[in-house]
Structure formats: structure tokens, C-alpha cells
Design goal:
This protein is α/β, with parallel strands linked by helices. Helix content is 39%, strand content 13%. The chain has two domains: 184 residues, Spore Coat Polysaccharide Biosynthesis Protein SpsA, Chain A (Alpha-Beta Complex); 68 residues.
């Protein structure tokens, strides 16, 4: 489904290191489905006008701007303040880098900051201020007021941010509902979840595209139908090889989604023609494997004894 272009927004991803509940492991660098938690957060906001990650520099699948709170480890409000200095647009999407299943539908809902509101915060039984979209200027105002009141932002609880803002709650709970990964049990649950039937194929395709640097949104249903037809109508190894050749042909044609669709259509028609010949041979009493009439035996057409 296509959606109207969003008003430009800035994305801020909080990616501190040294999680105590993970035994000091660098949580944003932990992988779920062979992709780091940080990369999964960056994929959720891939269409942001700017993306700033607050935390130590790490390898990421796409370019980002890096910032660091003062002092390092000063907490979420200090990190938010550091990232907000790079914001250039009227809306800021704030994400924590430990939510592997933040889907595009949830992001769209958060970014729908309505008239009279100063932001939209995710609500899953409690407000999640680190999974929210804020209007930029009210957010700067509240951080400045907190700094004035407390002398510094370091160490302050993030819930203080909510008291001065007029926010709408988003109770969106899609199939890819956010799941905080705070412990190794949470990580194990997330890793098992991506392998569930109905999710594993999309997760794998997304991981492959990220690994290969492919930014292409393709309808996989025709490709799967083609692979099935090639496997059943030709031979099983034909399925992956045909898919490879379709991709190669689409790349030569320009690599756009319509190029993939056209190459898939032509290969699927070929597979149907191939399968039709096998059906005709069988109906005519011939061996579809090329051994002559179905009642014959040896390769020379003589009956076996």
C-alpha cells in the first residue's frame, strides 16, 4: 500500500551503551535476526529528513549524524538534548534503540501529531516517552525549563518531560508491536519471534536487502509463485536459479520494481509453457522425463525383460 509523502521530520535514536541488565553488553549492537537493534531502529525511520544517533559511534547500515550527551551516560533527557541540537524540522521522532519490532504503521501513527497537541506518545499500558513524536519547539521549551529548574538534565527521569507537554496517546498495537529488549530473556524471545510462520520470510528479505544495500520494495507473491512453478513444472533446483536469473535480468533492465515485475512475468509465462508440454506428453502416453511412450522400457524403445 502506498501512502502520501510525510511532512519532513527529524529522527533521534537514543543508543547508549553498557546495559547493566545485559551484563554490560553494548545493547544497540546486539543482533536480532542478524541485524543489530540499532539498525532495526534506523530502518523504522528510514524516510526521516535527518537522523541523529546519540551514543558511541558504531557501524550502521545507513549514514547518520552522531551526537553524545554531556556527560556521557547522563541519561535520556541529556541524550535527547544533545540530539535535538541537530533537528531542523517541526517534528521530531524519538526512538530508543532497543525496540526491534517497531513497524511503519506505528511510526505513521506517532507522526500524526494533530492540531492542539504537542506530540504523540506510544501507550502500551503506560506512556512510553522514548517512543514518541514531538513538535520540536515545545520539546526544546520543556528541556530548557527543566534545565533551569534542576540546574542540569543529567540524571533526571524522563517522565518529567511529560508533565509540561500536551500529548495524544497512541494505543496502536499491530502484529509487530514494540517489544523492549532489556534482558537476555527478552533478546531470546525476540529472536524466536522473528522465526514465526508468517514473519520469518519478510524478516529474512529485509535482512538480505540491508546486507546487500538494496533499497527496493518488491511484491514477493509473484516471485514465490514463479519459484513454485519452476520447482513443480521443471525441477526443484530450478526455483532458486530462476529467481537469480530474474533478479539479474531486472538489474540489467534498470533495477526498478517494474523491471522485477516484468522479468518475473516473462519467466512465469515460460514456466507455464514448460509445464504445459509435460502435461501434453503425459496425456499422449509419453514419458515426461524423455523416455518415450510411457509403456516402453529401455532407452532404445525395446521392452525390458
Amino acid at each position: 500500500m502506498t501512502h502520501a509523502p510525510r511532512t519532513p521530520y527529524d529522527a533521534l535514536v537514543l543508543a547508549g551503551d553498557g546495559s547493566r541488565r545485559l551484563g554490560g553488553a553494548d545493547k544497540p549492537a546486539v543482533t536480532v535476526g542478524a541485524r543489530t537493534l540499532l539498525d532495526r531502529a534506523l530502518a523504522a525511520c528510514a524516510d526521516a529528513a535527518t537522523t541523529t544517533v546519540v551514543g558511541p559511534r558504531r557501524a550502521t547500515y545507513r549514514p547518520v549524524t552522531w551526537a553524545r550527551e554531556e556527560p556521557p551516560g547522563g541519561g535520556p533527557l541529556a541524550a535527547l538534548d544533545a540530539g535535538l541540537r541537530h533537528a531542523r524540522h517541526g517534528t521530531v521522532l524519538l526512538l530508543s534503540a532497543d525496540v526491534p519490532f517497531l513497524g511503519p504503521e506505528t511510526v505513521r501513527e506517532l507522526l500524526d501529531v494533530r492540531t492542539g497537541d504537542e506530540g504523540t506518545v506510544l501507550y502500551d499500558g503506560r506512556e512510553q516517552p522514548l517512543l514518541a513524536a514531538y513538535r520540536t519547539e515545545p520539546l526544546r521549551r520543556e528541556l530548557a525549563l527543566l534545565r533551569t529548574e534542576y540546574g542540569a538534565l543529567s540524571g533526571l527521569p524522563v517522565r518529567l518531560l511529560l508533565t509540561g507537554l500536551t500529548l495524544r496517546r497512541s494505543e496502536v498495537s499491530p502484529s509487530g508491536a514494540p517489544l523492549d529488549c532489556d534482558t537476555w530473556d527478552d533478546i531470546a524471545t525476540a529472536r524466536a519471534r522473528i522465526r514465526e510462520h508468517g514473519r520469518v520470510l519478510d524478516e529474512w528479505m529485509t535482512a538480505v536487502k540491508a546486507e546487500l544495500g538494496i533499497e527496493l520494495d518488491v511484491d514477493t507473491a509473484p516471485l514465490l509463485d514463479l519459484a513454485r512453478d519452476a520447482a513443480h513444472g521443471v525441477t526443484r533446483p530450478a526455483a532458486p536459479l530462476t529467481a537469480f536469473l530474474v533478479g539479474y535480468a531486472a538489474a540489467q533492465a534498470g533495477g526498478a520494481p517494474q523491471d522485477v515485475a516484468e522479468a518475473t512475468r516473462r519467466a512465469a509465462a515460460l514456466a507455464r509453457r514448460w509445464a504445459a508440454e509435460n502435461t501434453e506428453n503425459t496425456e499422449n502416453g509419453e514419458d515426461p522425463q524423455g523416455g518415450g511412450p510411457s509403456g516402453s522400457g529401455g532407452r532404445d524403445g525395446t521392452a525390458e525383460r
